[in-house]
Write a structure and sequence with these properties.
Order of helices and strands: HHHHHHHHHHHHHHHH
CATH class: Mainly Alpha
Distance between the termini: 20 Å
Number of domains: 1
Structural class: mainly alpha
Number of helices: 16
Helix content: 55-70%
Number of strands: 0
Oligomer: single chain
Largest sheet: none
Bound molecules: inosine diphosphate ribose, magnesium ion
CATH architecture: Orthogonal Bundle
CATH topology: ADP-ribosylglycohydrolase fold
CATH superfamily: ADP-ribosylation/Crystallin J1
Mean pLDDT: 97
Shape: globular
Low-confidence stretches: none
């Protein structure tokens, strides 16, 4: 049995590694191969800086730790304050618009609903930051769904934006409870598929199972599952990238980034799931060391672990 502590840290570090490595390729077409990404990671000199994906994940973790549990208003303010301190991290247009509306007097309930014609965003911004919630609430999938929907709606109210975050959280929770030696990727995909309440996601996850069985090429994976910024074109893709490469956390991230498109975010989501299976040991120390604030991110994982332990007893 893997120690839970390293799995908590692994999921947050996996987010940061996928994000920071993928950031340089966001918006690119498919890369020559996953090993191209691994080679880039090995040879890169200097610090690998993270983007909004990790920055928001840090905010979610900080709020859970400070409040010793989920407090929507506190988390919303934390995400807004962190953004205002470091607005340069490549945020999507939605969240900063919400924060500006709130600063000008619109309520937290109302502001995110005003985006994109009145239903709110279905971008992957709620899914990319979900790891800390998945870690803390992994024991009850019902409670996890409830907490993740609420936390998503700070910025993403569209049901498809929320569902992407819920499924990404389920994937992390399942991975956290599994061990690498007994992991079955088809059973895993089936379990995530069973949990979805939205047809688009059910369809994508069923496609993911077929692509895995057929050992589909990367180009077909991109064509069928997508690699863009909408939650339904990236969260199922990340879940697939992990399932296909479950034996190695670094290979999973490299494969995800090699698909191109929203590479930092698909890398971050894949890394969060893979890190929850393999723990921090799944990532080479020389890569972890290159990631900006990796010691702080590991510490947040440890504090979330302590919080989870204390809430259990
Ligand atoms: O979801 P969000 O926080 O963006 C996250 C992405 C990641 O790739 C990060 O790495 C960063 O680069 O940004 O930000 P949003 O602005 O809410 O959503 C992202 C994009 O999804 C939007 O800018 C739109 O292009 C698209 N989108 C929609 N398009 C049409 N209709 C989101 N919701 C809608 C919609 O309802
Ligand atoms: Mg980003
Ligand atoms: Mg991105």
């Amino acid at each position: 049995m893997f120690a839970m502590l390293t799995k908590f840290a692994g999921s947050l570090l996996g987010t940061a590694i996928g994000d920071s490595l993928g950031a340089g390729f966001e918006g690119f077409g498919p890369l020559p191969s996953p090993s191209y990404v691994l080679e880039f990671a090995r040879q890169y000199r200097g610090q690998l800086r993270y983007t909004d994906d990790t920055h928001m994940t840090i905010g979610v973790a900080e709020s859970l730790i400070e409040r010793r549990g989920f407090d929507k208003l506190h988390m919303a303010n934390k995400l807004m304050e962190n953004y205002e301190q470091q607005p340069f991290r490549g945020y999507g247009p939605g969240p900063p618009t919400v924060f500006r509306m709130v600063r000008s007097g619109v309520s937290w309930e109302e502001a995110p609903r005003r985006l994109f014609g009145g239903r709110g965003s279905f971008g992957n911004g709620a899914a990319m930051r979900v790891a800390p919630l998945a870690l803390l609430f992994h024991q009850s999938l019902e409670e996890l769904r409830e907490v993740v929907s609420q936390a998503s709606q700070i910025t993403h109210t569209h049901p498809l934006g929320v569902e992407g975050a819920v499924l990404q959280a389920y994937a992390i929770a399942l991975s956290l409870k599994a061990t690498p030696s007994s992991f079955d990727p088809l059973d895993f995909l089936e379990a995530v598929a069973q949990a979805t309440r939205e047809a688009v996601y059910a369809e994508k996850l069923s496609t993911a199972q077929k692509l895995l069985e057929q050992r589909a090429e990367r180009a077909e994976v991109v064509r069928r599952l997508g690699n863009s910024v909408e939650a339904f074109n990236s969260a199922p893709t990340a879940i697939f990238c992990f399932a296909k490469n479950y034996e190695s956390a670094m290979d999973a991230i490299a494969y995800a980034i090699s698909l191109g498109g929203d590479a930092d975010t698909i890398g971050a989501m894949t890394g969060a799931i893979a890190g929850a299976l393999h723990g921090e040991q799944g990532f080479p120390a020389e890569i972890v060391e290159k990631i900006e604030d990796s010691a702080y991110i590991r510490e947040l994982g440890a504090k979330l672990y302590e919080l989870w332990e204390s809430r259990r007893s």
